[in-house]
Amino acid sequence: MAKAAKEIRLQGVAASPGVVIGPVRILTGEVAMISRRTIEADQAAAEMERLMQALNQSSEELEIIYQQTSAAYSPDAAQIFRVHQAMLSDPMVIDECRDMIQKERVGAEYAFSEVMDRYIEKLSALGDEMFRARHADVRDLKRRVLHHLLGSEIAPIVLEEPSIIFARELTPSDTVHLERGKVLGFAMDFGARTSHATILARSINVPAVVGLKEGAASIKDGDWAILDGSEGVLILNPTPVTEAFYRKRREKYLDRLQRLEKLKDLPARTLDGKNIELACNIEFIEEAESVIAMGGDGVGLFRTEYLFLSGAELPTEERQVEEYTRLAKAMKGKPLIIRTFDLGGDKLPPFITLPPEQNPFLGVRGVRLYFNGASSLFRTQLRAIYRAGLHGDIRIMLPMITSVEEIIQCRRIIAEIQEELRREKLPFAEQLPLGAMIEVPAAAVVADLIAKECDFLSIGTNDLVQYTVAVDRGNPHLLYLYQPYHPAVFRLIAGVIQKAHEQGVWVGMCGEMAGDPLVTMILIGMGLDEFSVSPGSLPYIKEIIRNVSVEECEEMVAQLFELASIDKIQRFLNDSFRRKFSMEMLI
């Protein structure tokens, strides 16, 4: 009698919620190693021609994939393949390949592979998850072009039965080439919540887990498995007891989805009638559809850094106008808060050079960069936003504000670029609300003074927590000190809301804390006007809002302010949630 396989539990990062059970199918998606092939000097032109032909063939393929993805998913979801097409025609990439072929006398395959690997390495080195996630896109392009250069074909992916798909890292092409009806879920060793594969997974409600790290060493094709995208786990060869537990968990999850679906078109209104804005944080235009589908009231944070970090060249004003206009139209009149680029720290595009800093996270980043090395970039972005402002309810938000003077200086620049646009007779929106992100303690303390110069404030809790407790949130040795439930954090947040309201200015929150169900009642009790969360978190937060009163939330805040330690606050939040709702609501 064969011995039963041992149950293995792999912990990763929750990327798309839901529980599924089924066989695992492994996708490799790799290309062969490209060896260095030396050519004669008179062969360089022919090699370059081969490369250009492969780029053109790849672009034609991407056009077909774009059309297919538009039909199967949505035009916004397919937009990534338009970006891939643009990357194929990037003159910097082509010039780098030409240089290698001519100067180093190497074959086209080797030159293109090397240039792509350099971009992958640069993206991987960036500390921000979003930009590390982009190297899957470059890998996808590399594989496609090399297949043409090598004369091979990308084999279609055929699934014989509904399966959990495992890959070291899924590319956008892998994801859309899979037959939707047979994909139970996605699991990856690498990847990120912000990779296009996981964005697509969330858009079609398929569970996903990323960051398994060593899954490939444990998983065999055909393994029976449980994937829980809410807990971020993949369980191989589950025992009957484990499988029974997760089958019940899946039933509860599906029941919950049905309940949440009924809330989609209902307002985020408390039991005693207070309406609260419930918006979404997004990073890519293709996510706009999810905001509308989930019943979001708008976009509370649109990060624009990808425009500056995903290409080798500066994004032109016209390209930015096009991007912001497309998003504004996709929002169908709902508010869209565009955060001006938050670069610096660990995120700097190749076309910005700064002197070395001992501590870049306390250095030239966010709004500080606008006055120290990126003034023209800032002005170009503002011009684009004001021009796109004619096509929707666009608002502007400034990152990393520390003082009133920074707001005043930005307003002066805005006045100048408005005058430029008038002189150039370019149509633009005359009035766009201007807001500030409150994400450093100094700004929180003087929130009343900043509010006098702004139309709204939005609390960025990720950085606010980091700077309040003086801990780098990316430092794995100090994660235990990065505590959103620190009493100081709650006091700062309450103070910001109170001071802004005294000046008649509304306050939103676009940090991770806004999507934490355990603190939803606390934030309502403090008077927060707008929650901006990931599209997937939106129905969960709405369900809580619709089942509480402002009065009971205010009582909860009063009790919380009596607690002095993080541990006591953690227990208080857990106990309160369990009494009011059920911990199963956190599935």
Please describe what this structure looks like.
The protein has 587 residues and is α/β, with parallel strands linked by helices. Helices cover 47% and strands 13% of the residues. The protein has 24 helices and 16 strands. The protein has an 8-stranded mixed beta sheet with strand order 1-8-7-3-4-5-6-2. It has an 8-stranded parallel barrel with strand order 9-10-11-12-13-14-15-16, surrounded by 4 helices. Helix 1 packs antiparallel against helix 2 (75-88). The longest helix has 29 residues, at 44-72. The protein is globular, with a radius of gyration of 25 Å. The mean pLDDT is 87.
Characteristic key phrases:
alpha/beta, eight-stranded mixed β-sheet, 587 residues, 16 strands, eight-stranded parallel barrel, 24 helices, globular, single chain
